[in-house]
Amino acid sequence: PISGWHGDNMIEPTTNMGWYKGWKKETKSGEVTGKTLLDAIDAIEPPSRPTDKPLRLPLQDVYKIGGIGTVPVGRVETGTIKAGMVVVFAPANVTTEVKSVEMHHEQLEAGLPGDNVGFNVKNVSVKDIRRGNVCGDSKKDPPKEAASFKAQVIVMNHPGQIGNGYAPVLDFHTAHHACKFDTLLEKIDRRSGTSVADLP
């Protein structure tokens, strides 16, 4: 129980709620207790960053900066990006070397998952790569173009029927792409997750 108006249990424990004994929470580092909102925020454990996975960096934009050259910008989803790495952009299939990595106008040794980075690349024109392309390490499981994939789709609200041949536009990360439902494999019950009908 907190009161933002009176400041009760926000930063310091209040004397107005003698009945409230505080909260307990089990974490990886052990049991944590507290009474205030600040204690609760301090008890949040940061998520583990997937640095061990292959590099995946969807491009948000590509800039041409005078005196520097082509600078793609995006958020590192998995893996790390470092200067000197040879990267490949999919599906454009352009391979190049990373000259430097920056975040908020400061040079970085490595861009980690969650970082919004800009990186300078050699001998690549702004026309060669664009928003929606995915950057990956050319030596460690580079990203590839897919002709088809299986997906589980949740239909929230749709006026018509959805069947084989339905052609929606997909938005994934920064890409925006038209696709086509080739075959509906099964219909799943939304509550239990069990299959209701095969090839509906």
TrEMBL record:
SUPFAM superfamilies: Translation proteins
Domain GTP-eEF1A C-terminal: 148-195
Compartments, as annotated in UniProt: Cytoplasm
Keyword Secreted: no
Coiled coil stretches, renumbered: none
GO CC, any one term: cytoplasm
CDD domains on file: EF1_alpha_II (cd03693)
Protein name: Translation elongation factor 1a
Name of the gene encoding the protein in the UniProt record: EF-1-alpha
